[in-house]
Write a structure and sequence with these properties.
The protein has a single domain, classed as Ribosomal protein L16/L10 (Aldehyde Oxidoreductase, domain 3), CATH 3.90.1170. Helices cover about 20% and strands about 30% of the residues. It has 1 helix and 5 strands; from the N terminus they run βαββββ. The strands form 2 sheets. The chain has a 3-stranded antiparallel β-sheet. It is elongated, with a radius of gyration of 21 Å. The two termini are about 20 Å apart. GO terms for molecular function: structural constituent of ribosome. Pfam families: Ribosomal_L16. Keywords: Ribonucleoprotein, Ribosomal protein.
Length: about 100
C-alpha cells in the first residue's frame, strides 16, 4: 500500500475487487480462478462538522463531546498487508500482461 500504515475506504476496496474480477474473468474464464478479499472495512470514520460563519460560537459546542456523525467505513491497512489473494487453476494458460 504505502510507506506507513493507512486507511483504505470501502469504496476503494470494492473498486479494486471489481476491477480484478473483470480482468480475471476476461483472461482465464469464470471458473478458472478463486479470489479472496483479505481486508474488510470494520473501522467507522466519524466527522465533527464545524461552522465558520459569523455567530458560529453560539451554534455549536466546539470539541466538547466531539464524537461526530459516521462518515464511512475503512479498513486499517499496515505495511506489507495483503489486500487480495487470487488462486488460478493449473489447466488455465494465464499470463500477466
Amino acid at each position: 500500500m504505502g510507506r506507513r500504515p493507512a486507511r483504505c475506504y470501502r469504496y476503494a476496496l470494492e473498486a479494486a475487487h471489481i476491477c480484478a474480477n473483470k480482468y480475471m474473468v476476461k483472461n482465464c474464464g469464470k471458473d478458472g480462478f478463486h479470489m479472496l478479499v483479505r481486508k474488510h472495512p470494520y473501522h467507522v470514520v466519524r466527522i465533527n462538522k464545524m461552522l465558520s460563519c459569523a455567530g458560529a460560537d453560539r451554534l455549536h459546542t466546539g470539541m466538547r463531546g466531539s464524537f461526530g456523525k459516521p462518515q464511512g467505513l475503512v479498513a486499517r491497512v499496515g505495511l506489507n498487508d495483503i489486500l487480495m489473494s487470487i488462486r488460478v487453476r493449473d489447466q488455465v494458460n494465464f499470463y500477466f500482461a
